Amino acid sequence: MSRFGSEGEDIIGRWSEEKLDLLSKYLKAYSDIMNKQKKSWLKAYYYIDAFAGSVRPRAKEDERRYIDGSPLRALQTEPKFDGYWFVDVSPRRIERVRDLREEFPNRVIYVRQGNCNDVLCNEIVPQLPYASKQRAFVFLDPYGLQVDWDTVSELANTRTCDVFVNFSVMGVTRLLPREQKPERDVVEQLNKVMGGTDWITQIYQQPSVTQLDLFGNLAEQTLSRDTLKAEWLASLYTEQLRSLFPYVSRPVLMRNSTNSVLYALCLASHNQTATKITNEIFNRHERLKS
């Protein structure tokens, strides 16, 4: 649940700052590589932000300190992208994003208010066919479980998009009751978000089955609703992504101040170099934290 400051801006915790720092590092690497490709075959490359509204959030630890949100990180990246798509469902957030056109008059900025699934699938994806020799970086950073699996599948089918996904582990966990199997509407919601629900049967059955660790290996621990770990859900989602994309980075877990896992951040791509760079960025980040 978002907190808002006196001016209606988002207030974010330390983990969100870390996520944005990781985004910045990858955007720089991505833009450097894509800009070089423009000298040969590439016609254009774009930044697409499906939840773009937090332009200048404030730090939870010090609400006097403003932080550059994802739209600013993208717009400040050099070399610059050929265009920027900013999407958000909130009119207030969209208004803040539109103001960026005055701040960055030399950037080509497209702003759309609406459901990200509709805007991506109906308006943006059709403009990025493989034959167009265009590429795009897509940032999916939902507030909860708003990104449909069908949307991720559409992005994968273009073969032109690198997708940075911040998957809501917390959102999934909250939907799973401890005492009984989830109701049909919950199963349908999870299927819509994760592209399959066979795993739900597994965690409510006896005897329990073994879990996957973050690297997709079987871990020596039983899996049930009582022992369900965020790491397993993060691995499950990245395994699902591998059914759509040939290359998926390992997930890095985004934890709050009490060390609870909120999200799992990963990159899905059709380019092996992209995931190699992402894993290096993630590994460096975790070494610095330890």
Short recap of the structure:
The protein is of the alpha/beta class.
Describe this entry's structure for a reader:
- The protein is α/β, with parallel strands linked by helices and 290 residues long.
- The protein has a single domain (3-175, 230-289), classed as 3-Layer(aba) Sandwich (Rossmann fold), CATH 3.40.50.150.
- The chain has helices at 14-37, 70-76, 91-98, 100-103, 116-124, 149-158, 169-174, 184-194, 198-203, 230-241, 272-289, and strands spanning 3-4, 10-12, 44-49, 58-59, 83-88, 109-113, 134-140, 161-168, 209-212, 218-223, 247-248, 252-255, 261-269.
- The strands form three sheets. Strands 3, 5, 6, 7, 8, 11, 12 and 13 form an eight-stranded mixed sheet that branches. Strands 1-2-4 form a three-stranded mixed sheet. Strands 9-10 form a two-stranded antiparallel ribbon.
- α5 packs parallel to α6.
- The radius of gyration is 19 Å and the shape is globular.
- The two termini are 28 Å apart.
